Amino acid sequence: MMGTSATGKGGIATVVAVLQREGFxxxxxxxxxxxxxxxxxxxxxxxxxxxxxxxxGVRLRGARPxxxxxxxxxxxxxxxxxLLWVARVLGCxxxxxxxxxxxxxxxxxxxxxxxSRWIRHTLRRSSAVVTxxxxxxxxxxxxxPGANVVVIPNSVQLPAVTVRxxxxxxxxxLGRAEQRKGIFDLLRAVRDLVAVIxxxxxxxxxxxxxxxxxxxxxxxxxxxxxxxxxxxGGEEKARRLEEAMVFCLPSHDEGLPMAMLEAxxxxxxVVVTPVGGIPEAIVHGxxxxxxxxxxxxxxxxxxxxxxxxxxxRNRLGARxxxxxxxxxxxxxxxxxxxxxxxxxxxx
Length: 347
Fold this sequence. Notes:
The protein has about 350 residues and is of the alpha/beta class. Helices cover about 50% and strands about 15% of the residues.
């Protein structure tokens, strides 16, 4: 399996970290090879070349591994598609695992005829294409007819069962703070909320254009209600999830966001948008709340309802955790991935 470092930022890194913690590679006779990490251009090139050399070394020793890559869009796709080409030349079976929420834009709008042809070729020649939701699977099947597309959602670990404490009206946002993730819609929603819940606070855990976020908060007159916590992981993320009253990710496009799944696993009510694979995980009013993207006034109204209604929060949080346990827990999802490997081994 190949992809970005598990110590890095983003959904792929989080997914890989879960696989490592759960002993997935040991149980399946696998090895994880880092193809990308944060650093200088020289370090990035060296990391990518090292991945190729590791694959060549394994093949020269007589093994014929299945090569499974985790990919987003643009540069990530070009790196991973090149690795898959090398793997196929060496006679290996290949799995292309798509995570990028912007892949549709990349494949259909940004790419010219030659790149589009290469994308289709990569998808069709892969032994399997793994996507996170049925909606993404439909798009890939239409875009690259004949591709063997399999739906396997992201998995998330369930923290120990705890009773959520009474907390301040904190809204937690986890992810890259940018327009695509709806952060500026959320800031406008917080401005509206301040009028009815004066103690409300938005905690932003993530990277991105944080200076632009600060400027927007100042222009809206809510700077004192916004905490820029920066990228967080591990114990700090768990603590922030426990201290929050509601999780909000008002994205304009998504795959199946790990941050949302982690919040659900923690028993936190979530307010999100019906984009990408989210509507396949969230039923409005049952295990979360759905708000159309780009509607800050409606977002404020729904957030206000959740923040003021403890019974609603408890019910949404309990059902959210139940959803993770039955559909997105590590045991369930990693069994699906192991089953895919078994099927490929028989072909």
